[in-house]
User: What shape does this take?
Amino acid sequence: AGELPELAVQWKAEEAPEPQLLVLNEPLAADLGLDPAWLRSRDGLGLLVGALIPSDATPVAQAYAGHQFGGFQPRL
Assistant: This one.
């Protein structure tokens, strides 16, 4: 997002009420340098659902354009 700012906008997701972890890809967590046990904790789950934002991170949403309802929309 930092390299192509026109493709993303800063965004804060709505909080997920009572999130639950159903499945955890432990090999992927290890590849990303994340402790699977921590991801299962309350803070880890907060990270996964976007409620806990690391201090060096900026949440963004992908911005894109296209046709919707028969007309071009510059930002969807």
